[in-house]
Design goal:
9 strands; Rossmann fold; 5-stranded parallel sheet; putative n-type atp pyrophosphatase, domain 2; alpha/beta; single chain; globular; 228 residues; 6 helices
C-alpha cells in the first residue's frame, strides 16, 4: 500500500513510520502541518522547523501545509485529495495513540476522500511504546514540557530506560499520559534505525517558567551516519 504520513518530528509519528516501513508499506510523503496558532487543538510542534532535516535523513519527500485554526482539517483534507490524485496514495499514517478527538477527525477526513487511516500505535500501552522506541535505538530528546511534575532538567534530555521509568512514576502520581498524548511533553527524534543521517544539535536555548518550558533548537545539521 502507498501512504502519506502525518509527521511532527516527534517519537510517535516517527515510530509509526518505522513500523510501516517494517511492513514494506510505501510512504510517498511526510505531511507536516504548521498551525498558525500555538493553541491548536490538533497539532503541537515545538521543533517544526527542523522536520526538514528529518525528512532528508529519511529520504522521504515532505509536504508542508500551513493551517488556520478555523480550517485546519479542511486544509489537510485538500492536501490529501491532491496526493491521492497525483501520487495514488491509498491511506494516511498517523502516530495517534489515545486522543479520541484527533482519531475521530482523521477517520472522518479519510472516509470522505476514500483513504484508509492506519494508526499502528492506537490504544497500545504507552509504556510498552516507550520501551519499544528505546530498545529500537531511537535517539529522542524532550523539547517541551507543560505539566506539573516535570523539572527543567527534562528539557534536552534523551528518552532512555531511566526516563521511561520516571515517566511511569509521573503518570501514576500526577495523571500525565506517559507518551505525552495530552501535550504534557513534546519530543524530537535525532536518529532512528531507518535514518540515513543523524541530526546533530549545534546550538539551543532553554526557556522555563514554573512547570513548563521549551528546548529551542537554534542550529542543527544532518550528518551521514558511519557504516556499522
Amino acid at each position: 500500500m502507498k501512504f502519506a504520513a502525518l509527521y511532527s518530528g516527534g517519537k510517535d509519528s516517527t515510530y509509526a513510520i518505522y513500523y510501516a516501513l517494517s511492513q514494506a508499506w510505501e510512504i510517498t510523503h511526510l505531511i507536516t502541518l504548521i498551525p498558525e496558532s500555538e493553541e491548536s487543538a490538533m497539532w503541537h510542534y515545538p521543533a517544526i522547523k527542523w522536520t526538514e532535516l528529518q525528512a532528508k535523513a529519511m529520504g522521504i519527500s515532505q509536504l508542508k501545509v500551513r493551517v488556520k485554526s478555523r480550517s485546519e482539517l479542511q486544509e489537510l483534507r485538500e492536501a490529501l485529495k491532491k496526493l491521492k490524485a497525483k501520487e495514488g496514495i491509498e491511506g494516511l499514517l498517523s502516530g495517534v495513540i489515545a486522543s479520541d478527538y484527533q482519531k475521530r477527525r482523521l477517520d472522518s477526513i479519510c472516509e470522505k476522500i476514500g483513504l484508509k487511516l492506519i494508526a499502528p500505535l492506537w490504544q497500545k500501552d504507552p509504556i510498552a511504546i516507550l520501551k519499544e522506541v528505546v530498545n529500537s535505538n531511537f535517539k529522542v530528546i524532550v523539547v517541551g514540557v507543560a505539566a506539573y511534575g516535570f523539572t527543567r532538567d527534562w528539557l534536552g534530555s534523551t528518552i532512555n530506560s531511566k526516563r521511561v521509568e520516571e515517566l511511569k512514576i509521573l503518570s501514576e502520581k500526577y495523571g500525565i499520559h506517559p507518551c505525552g498524548e495530552g501535550g504534557e511533553f513534546e519530543t524530537f527524534v535525532c536518529d532512528a534505525p531507518f535514518f540515513k543521517e543523524k541530526i546533530e544539535i549545534a546550538d539551543y536555548e532553554i526557556k522555563w517558567h514554573r512547570y513548563s518550558g521549551e528546548y529551542i533548537i537554534k542550529k542543527a545539521t544532518a550528518t551521514p551516519k558511519k557504516p556499522a
